[in-house]
Amino acid sequence: MKRFVWAAVLAVIGCGGGEGAAGGEDESPMTMEATGPRGEATLHAMVKFEGTPPANPAIDMADEPSCVAKHQGTPMDPRVVVDGGNLANVFVYVKGGLPAGATYSAPSAPVVLDQDGCLYTPRVLGAMAGQPIDIQNSDPTAHNIKAVPTENRPFNISQPREGMTTTRTFNTPEVMVPLECNVHGWMNAYVGVMSHPFYGVTGADGTVAIQGLPAGTYEVEAWHEVFGTQTMTVEVPATGMVHAPFTFSATS
Amino acid sequence: MATTALPLEHATHAEAHELSFIQKYIFSTDHKIIGIQFLLMSMLFLVVGGLLALMIRWQLGFPETAIPGGALLPETMAPDGFLLPEFYNSLVTMHGTFMVFFAIMPLLVGVFGNFLIPLKIGAPDMAFPRLNMASFWVAVPAGIMMLAGFFVEGGHSGAGWTVYAPLSADPEWTGVSYGQQLWLLSIAVLGLSSILGATNYITTVVNLRAPGMTWFRLPLSIWALFITAILVLLAIPILSGAAIMLFFDQTIGTHFFDAATGGQPLLWQHLFWYFGHPEVYILILPAMGMVSDVIANGSRKPIFGYHSMVYAIIAIGFLGWIVWGHHMFQSGMNPTLGMTFMISTMLIAVPSAIKVFNWMGTMWRGNIRFHVPMLHAVAFVAMFVIGGLSGVFMASTPVDIYIHDTYFIVAHIHYVLFGGSLFAIFAAVTFWYPKMFGRMMNPTMGKVHFWLTFLFYNLTFFPMHNLGVAGHMRRIYDPSQYEFLQPLAGINQFITVNALLLFASQLIFAVNFVVSWFRGKRATENPWEDNGLEWTVPSPPPHGNFAEVPTVYRGPYEFSSPDVSEDYLPQTTRLATDRTPAAGSEGGSA
Amino acid sequence: MSWILPPGVSTFASDIDFLYYLILIITGIAFVIVEAGLILFIVKYRERPGRKAYYTHGSTTAEIVWTAIPAITVVTIGVLSGGVWKTVKGRNSVPPDALPYGVLVKQFEWNFTHAGVDGALGTGDDFTLRNRMHIPVDRPVVMRMTAEDVIHSFFVPAFRIKQDAVPGMEIAVWFEATEPGEYELACAELCGIGHSNMGGTVTVHTAEEYSRWVAEQSTTAALR
Asked: Are A46 and A243 contacting, i.e. CB atoms less than 8 angstroms apart?
C-alpha cells in the first residue's frame, strides 16, 4: 500500500511539473529556426457588409462609474462595427497553401491588448504562436482575463490595479481563442493564434493588407465573431498586390 | 525474517544498542521518536501557515503598500510586490489547510497521541510500532505534495480550506487545476496516515494498559486521545472518499458535484462537514485532555469532577456527529433541518461548559504553581471560553444569517483553534519537553513568550469579532470595494500590526526550544512533581520505556492527598492500604 | 470597535437584532463570571509556602447545577431562535403578496430581473439590471435566485439577509425593507478571483417613487 502511495505521489508531482514546463515558451515548436518562405506580394483583403447591420446591445455599465466616464452616451457592445458598408474587426488569415513544414519564428515584440473603459482594445487581434501578448489594464477597476481556448492551455488571471501589464502566450495555432472578463460580463475579445505571420484584422475601412507573401495559391479565410467565416482561393503573384474581396450580410 | 523483525518491535533496553542511527532516529519504530518527528514536522508547517497568514494580513492592512520581500515572489503571485487576488485566495486556502491538517491536528494527535499514550498507560510502545512508523512516513509525502501545489502552473487551490464545489470541481472557475488536484491527493494520503495512527491508538489503549490501569484511572489526556482516535477512524474515511470523488470531478469529469450534469453542489458540503465537524472536536478534545492534566498539576489538586469530565468528552465525541449542518444554515439546505441542527449545536455547548466549570473547580482552593505550562493551560481555559461563547451566536440560526461568512466566524475559529488548541499545545510542549528531550526549557524565556503571545493574540483576534459585527465578509481580497467596510480599515491595520508582533513573539519560543534541546538544564525524572507513569522513568525514557511493567494503584490526579506528606502521590506508589490488582484484570501486559 | 450592529432596515431585522443582543448579554455574563472567577482563583489560590491544596474530587451538586443552567439557557435561546428562523427562512415563509424578482448570479455579477409595471415575471415589460436592484419600501419582495457557475451568497447587511445561490437550485429569498435609501449588497461566499469585486446596490424607493421609476424603466426596456 505504502509503495503504491509513493508511486502515485511521484507520478503526480512529475506530471504536474512536466505539464507546467510544457506551457512555457522554450518548448514551443515556433521557436525552431524559421525556414518558411517569404515573398514580396501583398494580399489586400476588403470586407464589405450588405444590408442593415444588427444593432449592438447596450451595456448596463451603471455599476462601474469609472468606465462609464470613458464613454459618450450609452456604452454599446461593439460586436458589429460597420462604417459605410465596410466591416471592421474581421480576422483575415492564410488558412492553407503554405509549403508543408514551413515554419516561421514568432516576433519577440509583444502584441498589446488593452482594457479601457471596460472594453477590450482591440476586440479582435492576431498573434503568432509563442509571441508575447501584453495584457494591460487602463481602468481604475479590477478586471480578470479568462482565456477559454480549445487547443491551448486555458488561464484565468486578474489585474486588480490600474496600469498593470501581464504577459501571456499561446503556443498552438487556434482560430479563435476567446477571452472574457467575468467581473464585466460583456467584455469579450478574440485572439487568432497563427503559425505564420500572414494574418491581419480589418480596420474601420474594412480592409487589411497582409504583406510578404511568397507566390502561390492560398486558401484565405475571413472570420467574424457574429457572422462566422468565409473562405476563398487566391492566386498570389511574385510581387504586387492581389485583392481578396469578402462580403458578409446579416443573413449569412 | 520474521524471527529477526518481531523482537525489535517490542525491543527492551537489552536490544537497543543494535539499532543503527537510521533505525533509531529516521525510520524509527519507537513511539517517542515518532512523536518528536511529528513535532518537528508540524512546527515547520505551523511556521509556513503563519507566514501565509501574515501575507493575508498585509493585504488587508496595507493594500496600497508592496509586501516586504514581495519581490521574491513570482509574477503569478505578486507582480511588483502586490498580491494578486488569485494568490490571495490560495493564501486563504492554504493557511487554513496547513494549520488544520498539517499543524494543529498532527501536533495534537500525531505528537502527543504517540508520545503520551504508551508512557501514560504503562506500555513499552504502541501495539503496532511499524504501522506507527508508516503513519509518519506517509504524512511526509502528503506534506510535500501540499507544498508542491504552490509551484505548479495555475497556482495552488483557491477554493478555501473547505474547497467547496463547484468552485473546486472544475478548473474553468478558478484557473487552478494541478494545485487543486495535489491538494486532494495530499489530503487523501494524509488521511491514510491518520487512520493508521488512530487504529494504533485505539488498539494500544484497549490492550496495553498496565495492571491496575483501569478505565477510570486513565489520565484525561488519554481519554481525550482515545475518543479522538475513534473520531479520526470514523471521520477521515469520509473525507478521503469525498476528496477522491472531487479529484475525479477535477480530472476525468465525473460531475459528482456539478448541478448541470446531475451532480449536487451541496453534496460536497454535507460530506465535507460530516467529516469536518468531528474534525473540529479532533482539534480540541486532545487539547482539553492535556490541559486537564496540566491544570491538576499546576493547582496541586485532583481534577474536579473526573467522571463528569470523562462523560463530557464522550458526549462531545457523540454530539460532534450530529451538528455538521450548522455550517450550512445559509446554504440552501432544507430550513427545517436548520432547526434540528440548531438544537443539537446548542446542546454541545453543555459538555463544553461542564469542562470549563470543572477546570475552574480544580483551581478553586488549590495551591497554584504558575509554571509555564500552567500559564498556557489557564490561558487555554480563558480563551476557549470566548470561542465557545461566540459559538452560541452562530448556533442561533437567525443571528447566523447575519454573521455567517463574516469575520465573526474567523474570530470564533481562531479563539478555538489558536486560543484553544494552540495554547494547549504550548502547555503540552512545555510540560512534556523535559520528558521528550531530557532538558528543561528556560522558564524566563517561556514566561516572556507566554505573555507576549497572550497579549498580541488577543489584540489580533478579538477585534475580528467587531469586524464581523460590522458585517465584514471573510475571504475578501479588497474590503475597500465596499463603502460600509471602509471605516474598518483602521481596525484591519491594527490587527495586521499585532499579527506581525504575534508572529515575531514566536521566535522566542523557537529559540528556547532549540537552545534548550542542547543547552537546557538536565531534567530530573519528575520535574513537575506529577503522578503520571511517564514521570517514573528517566528523562528521556529509554527504548521500551519501562524497565519492568509498572503496577497502578490509583488515578493520576491524587495531588495534596492527606495520605502522604508530599502534595503529590504517583500512580505507582504503593501505600500500605493498596491491594495488588488481580493478574490480567486490566488491559493487557507486554 | 463596537458590538453594536449597524442599523437594520428590514421587517425582521429587529427580531434578529433582539436575539443578537440577548445572546450578547447572556454570553457577556458567562464571560465575566468565568474570566473574573479565573482571575480571582489565580490571585487567591496562588502557591504559598507551607499550604496544601484542598483535597476534593468534586461535588455532584455542582455538576448538576452547571449542567442544568447552561442546558436550560441554550435550549431557551434555541427555541426563541426557532421562531424567528421560521419567519425568515421557513419553507412557507414567503408572504403571498411579495413582489417577485428573478436573480441570476454568475462570476462575478448579479443580474436582477425586475417584474416591470405589471408586477409579474415572464412578461414583456421585464427588464434586467446588473448589480442593481430596485425595490419599493414596506412591501415584501421575493427573489428566486439561482447561480450559473459556482456558489455565491447574497448578503445585504442592512436587511440582515444572507442566502447562498447554488447552481442547480432555485432558492426563494424574501425580505421587506422599511426605510428608503441605497444599501450595499455583497457576495459573502468565496466564488473565485473576482469575489471581492462582486458588490452591488439595492435601492429602496417610496411607493410613488417606485411606480414612477419602474414605469420609466419598462418603457426603456420596451424600446430596446
From this structure: yes
Q: With contacts defined as CB-CB under 8 Å, which chain A residues touch C201? A: 63
CA of C207 vs chain B CAs: smallest distance (Å): 26
Bond from prior residue into B540 cis (ω within 30 degrees of 0)? yes
Contact C223/A at CB under 8 A: no
| C107–chain A nearest CA distance, Å | 6
- B217 and C CB contact within 8 Å: no
- Grid coordinates representing B312? 463530557
**Residues B251, B279: contact at Cβ < 8 Å?**
no
For chain B, give the mean pLDDT.
Answer: 93
Cell of C109: 455579477
Q: Please state, in angstroms and rounded to a whole number, the distance separating the CA atoms of residues B399 and C19.
A: 7
User: Rounded to the nearest 5 degrees, what angle is found at the Cα of B247, between the Cα atoms of B140 and B324?
Assistant: 85
Mutual orientation of helices B178-207 and B85-97 as an angle, nearest 10°? Answer: 10
Label each residue of B3-16 as H, E or C.
Answer: HHHHHHHCCCHHHH
pTM, two decimals, is 0.92
B583 pLDDT band, cuts 50/70/90, is low
Using CA atoms, how far apart are residues B184 and B195, in angstroms rounded to an integer?
A: 17
Residue-level pLDDT at B21: 83
Strand order in the sheet with C127-130: C127-130, C109-114, C99-106, C141-147, C171-175
d(CA A50, CA A250): 7
Put simply, whether B353 touches C (Cβ < 8 Å) is: yes
User: What does the alpha-carbon distance between residue B374 and residue A54 come to, in Å, rounded to a whole number?
Assistant: 78
Rg from Cα positions in chain B: 24
CB–CB of B91/B55 below 8 Å? yes
| C72: number of Cβ within 10 Å | 11
Residue B231's CB: how many other CB atoms inside 10 A?
24
User: Residue B355: which H helix or E strand, with range?
Assistant: helix B335-363
Q: What is the DSSP letter of B190?
A: H
Per-residue pLDDT for B11 more than 70? no
**Yes or no, beta carbons of B189 and A9 under 8 Å apart:** yes
CA-based end-to-end distance of chain A: 61
Distances in Å between the Cα of A252 and the Cα atoms of A48, A249, B53 are: 13, 5, 56
Across the interface, of A1, A157, A161, the residue whose CB is closest to B175 is A157
Say if residues C222 and C124 touch (Cβ distance below 8 Å).
yes
The region that residue B172 occupies, defined by phi over 0 for left and psi between -120 and 50 for alpha, beta otherwise, is alpha
pLDDT at A251 over 80: no
Name the least confident of A45-49, B13-17, B239-243, C112-116: B13-17
CB-CB contact of C3 with B469 (8 Å) = yes
Residue B398 has its nearest CB partner, among C84, C163, C164, at C84
- Host H or E run for residue B270: helix B265-282
Report residue B20's pLDDT band, with 50, 70 and 90 as the boundaries. confident
Going from the C-alpha of A71 to that of each of A65, A77, A184, B459, the distances in angstroms are 10, 12, 15, 47
Which of A218-222, B242-246, C118-122 shows the lowest per-residue confidence on average (mean pLDDT)? C118-122
What average pLDDT does the segment B516-543 reach?
96
Q: Is the peptide bond before B141 cis (omega within 30 degrees of 0)?
A: no
Kindly state the percentage of chain B with pLDDT values over 70: 95
Q: How many CA atoms lie within 13 A of B585 on its CB side?
A: 13
Q: Tell me: pLDDT of A34 over 80.
A: no
CB nearest A19 (choices: B134, B151, B153): B153
Q: Are A134 and A113 in contact (CB under 8 A)?
A: yes
Q: What percent of chain A has pLDDT over 90?
A: 79
C-alpha distance from B385 to closest chain C C-alpha (Å):
7
pLDDT value for A250: 81
A27: its cell numbers = 518548448
Q: What is the pLDDT of residue B514?
A: 97
